[in-house]
Amino acid sequence: MNDTNKHVDALRQLMAAQKIDAFITPSTDPHSGEYVPSRWYSREWISGFNGSAGTAVVTPHAAALWTDSRYFLQAAEQIKDTYFTLQKDKIEGTPTISEWIGQQLEEGGCVGVDGWTNTVESVQTLQKELAEYGLSLRTDIDPYQTIWTDRPALPEEKVLIQPLELAGESTGSKVSRIRQAYHKNKAEGLLVSILDEVAWTLNLRGNDIDYNPVFVSYLLICDDTITLYTKSEKLPEEVCDYLQAEGVEVKDYDAIATDLKGMEKKIQIEAAKTNYGVYSCLAHPILADCPVSTMKIMKNATEIKGYHSAMLKDGIAMVKWMKWALQAVKDGGQTELSLEAKLTSLRAEQPLFRGVSFATIMGYAAHGAIVHYEPTPATDIPVLPKGLLLCDSGAQYQDGTTDITRTLPLGPLTDQERRDYTLVLRGFINLARVHFPKGTYGSQLDCLARAPMWEYGINYLHGTGHGVGSFMNVHEGPHQFRMNYMPTPLLPSMTITDEPGIYITDSHGVRHENTMLVVEDQEGVTFGPYYKFEQLTLCPIITSPIIVEMLQEDERKWFNQYQQMVYDKLAAHLDEEHREWLYEMTRPI
Q1: Selection from 406, 164, 168, 187 nearest residue 290 by Cα
Q2: CA 36, 318, 521, 548 torsion: positive or negative?
Q3: What is the pLDDT of residues 25-44, one digit of tens each?
Q4: Could you tell me how far CA 389 lies from the centroid of its own chain?
Q5: Which pLDDT score, from 0 to 100, does residue 69 have?
Q6: Mean pLDDT of all residues in the chain?
Q7: CA distance 197 to 205
Q8: For 367-390, how does the pLDDT look when each residue is reduced to its tens digit (9 = 90+)?
Q9: 3-147 domain in CATH 3.90.640.10?
Q10: C-alpha closest to that of 243 among 255, 257, 232, 258
Q11: Sign of CA dihedral 46, 47, 50, 54
């Protein structure tokens, strides 16, 4: 019996002892993070699936795993030979988790979740859905505390200060604005539980989670106190001194429940972001959006300057890597992992490099069709001088975070590969050059990136773009480009990516991606003002696969202007060899 099935058997024994008929394990931690510390890899431990998004459900006689289109192929492979069946989320005919459980259990059954790893909103929604089947919900049990015998402890990585010259606003100023915001809701305090929001507010960074410079903590801001709940072992002396100077008291991470239970103040929390365990401790919770999220996504002048610096450094590294990779693949002996390692090493040569911003997606040929494919020693394959290589990567520099995708032609291409490369480029350009009035949502612009491929009966199911943090999480919201309705207007000083793609199973994948900045455009004739996008990413898009005849004249003109801008901004920072290569790569088409 494999380990996954042994884990499920252990969970079923505990469920039987607790009189629980189904247990739901999400991918999240107490802080609703996209990436989580290894202590909360519970969904991976129970199911064997290690993608970043998914939910596992176990009953006495069945087990199912839900995940989205990015991970259909990966999940199917990883849960093979386990008790689990794959449920393709948001695909017609796939039951919701509640529907599936309702089909499995008899009326009067009990479903369990860990209230500390499920949000208030998700628990309340689940309670209503399960009630339709006559099922109850328990939120007071964490089975993994018992059955996961070698479960990792809370991380103890050290916290560092993000200096004011890079942050652009003091903690005192941010706290003042936060207090003004929660007072509007008649609250006497705000509990911040999202880790990047804690880090942003305090101008601190951490290393508790892969790729994201955050640390496990809660932050409670009241009218006359500021309390940080985290492990004190994480705080060097200079950080302790800094926090004391800012009027921040430090308490142990696990003290949050006791403190909240003894509090009579009206504390504001956001139902979609705060775990149900915290909510259950509060005597007078006020449910409202956390003001920190909207403050954080509006980049100040210092942060914007930092993005320009980070993108310049990243562009230098990318140019060096692209030139090297194209020749190295021709010379032979390269694999997906060797190409990834080289790219990381070139980034590491740049000043203020602090690591990669997410696991590099280096997908050659058919692997490029797996939207979030991450090569491992088990999946690594030779990269040959033919076909396409999809590289989606990014870096954390202390002055900014980067996210870029380039698809490299490694040799002869099929007509379909060239067509798909060009269609994705057209969508990328359409979105990049749009002008739009104030009040426009990303979901209203998303179709611009998809329209060229829709004409050919092609689509993709992931979002087209997301915000990017400032030496912070590479995925930042709530604004984004997505087919789903996302009612957050795009405003000047927000960052957002532009990343359409085409994925042909067992053949190839194509994606082009830049990080952009929303900037003011013009007042306009009617119903202004109007905004547009500034391209932050500085890296050429290789022109040899483009079917130029498929481009409209204004698309071709925009593309040539972008390529020229890349050359103009990078050339002075490159040696002659790389400058000449970049000149050839950015010639007008």
Answers
A1: 187
A2: negative
A3: 999 999 998 889 999 999 99
A4: 22
A5: 84
A6: 97
A7: 11
A8: 999 988 999 999 999 999 999 999
A9: no
A10: 232
A11: negative
Cα-Cα-Cα-Cα torsion 451, 456, 457, 459, nearest 10 degrees, comes to -50
Q: Which of 479, 476, 325 is nearest to 391 (CA)?
A: 325
Element (H, E) at 519: strand 514-522
* 572 within 8 A of 312, measured Cβ to Cβ: no
Alpha-carbon distances, residue 44 vs 28, 73, 229, 378 (angstroms): 11, 16, 27, 17
pLDDT in tens, 297-318: 999 999 999 999 999 999 999 9
CATH 3.40.350.10 is right for the domain spanning 160-296 = yes
In whole angstroms, what separates CA 470 from the centre of its chain?
Answer: 13
H-helix or E-strand spanning residue 583: helix 576-585
Q: Which residue type is seen at 95?
A: P
pLDDT tens string 194-204: 999 999 999 99
What sign does the CA torsion over 350, 199, 304, 323 have? positive
- Give the list of residues 6+ apart from residue 205 with CB closer than 8 angstroms, or none: 159, 160, 161, 162, 199, 213, 214, 215, 471, 472
CA dihedral defined by 218, 223, 225, 229, rounded to 10 degrees? -10
Q: Which of 288, 256, 355, 303 is nearest to 31 (CA)?
A: 256
Which tokens sit at 548?
Answer: 């130029």
CA atoms within 13 A on the CB side of 353: 18
Could you give the CA distance from residue 372 to residue 361 in angstroms, rounded to a whole number? Answer: 6
Q: In what helix (H) or strand (E) does residue 189 lie, and over which residues does it extend?
A: strand 189-192
Alpha-carbon distance 360 to 343, whole Å? Answer: 9
Domain limits of the chain?
3-147, 160-296, 301-585
Q: What are phi and psi of 279, to 5 degrees?
A: -55, -40
Positive or negative torsion for Cα 331, 335, 336, 338: negative
* Among the ranges given (91-95, 340-344, 370-374), the one the predictor scored with the smallest mean pLDDT: 370-374
CATH of 301-585, one of 3.90.230.10, 2.60.40.1400, 2.40.110.10, 2.60.40.10: 3.90.230.10
Domain 3-147 and domain 160-296, same fold? Reply is yes
